[in-house]
Amino acid sequence: MSLEEAKQVAANYAVDNFVFNNSILGIGSGSTVVYAVQRLAERVETENLKVTCVPTSFQAKRLITKHNLPLGELDTNPVIELTIDGADEVDSKMTLIKGGGGCLLQEKIIASCSNKLIVIADYTKDAKKLGDRYKKGIPIEVVPMAYVPIKKKIEAMFGGKAKLRKAIAKAGPVVTDNGNFILDWVFPNTDFEWEKVNQDLTMIPGVVETGLFVNMCYKAFFGQPEGHVVERDMTMTREIR
Ligand SMILES: O=C(CO)[C@H](O)[C@H](O)COP(=O)(O)O
């Protein structure tokens, strides 16, 4: 099974088993979420399911409207029942790295307003320790005028390298949906206490948000190369065949 198919089985499983009628849903960002929205649209069509979808990014908003799903805003839906989102890495304590696609700020806001955050991912995102598999570092969204001092502060406080994320089809840096820059902090191989690191990073003036999601994820579903799904939460890991 290809990586794309592994993403799809995880997405389908989450949508089929955790989305109920009349739910307010947070819709995450990235390539795996595309499959979840497709499945959601199928269920809305075939089962006449009623949902309201609150996006976590420009991409998510476009996905929702492309599939003619009801679009909601946080103003009118401040409490979200369930958010389904991807992740760049999930460690054994369910700490996440997010923001590989640059959408971490709105993703974290929506997750913080959600009763449950479910991660859908392929098997390559499943790690014992952060950094075991995802080598690009922790994305940190920063106010553009402060990126140089923030970069120096992060490197002095924790070691490693904080690199300004460059755009691919544009000269210069990536600009987020919120008009900010992203520093990808490639951290040293140390046993960090991620909750404390997250707090310390967010205390640096000019840091808008970090891609560290600590104690936010309810369950993660990893699509496997053999076609089944592995479910993980804080208490257990099980194979669903
Ligand atoms: O945090 C994200 C975007 O900011 C994504 O959820 C994360 O990058 C995973 O994306 P994909 O499903 O494409 O692997």
TrEMBL record:
It comes from Arctia plantaginis (Wood tiger moth). Pathway: Carbohydrate degradation; pentose phosphate pathway; D-ribose 5-phosphate from D-ribulose 5-phosphate (non-oxidative stage): step 1/1. Keywords: Isomerase. The keyword Isomerase applies. GO terms for cellular component: cytoplasm. Pfam families: Rib_5-P_isom_A. One of its GO terms (biological process) is pentose-phosphate shunt, non-oxidative branch. One of its GO terms (molecular function) is ribose-5-phosphate isomerase activity. This is ribose-5-phosphate isomerase. Belongs to the ribose 5-phosphate isomerase family. Its EC number is 5.3.1.6. InterPro entries: NagB/RpiA_transferase-like, Ribose5P_isomerase_typA_subgr, Ribose5P_isomerase_type_A. It catalyses: aldehydo-D-ribose 5-phosphate = D-ribulose 5-phosphate.
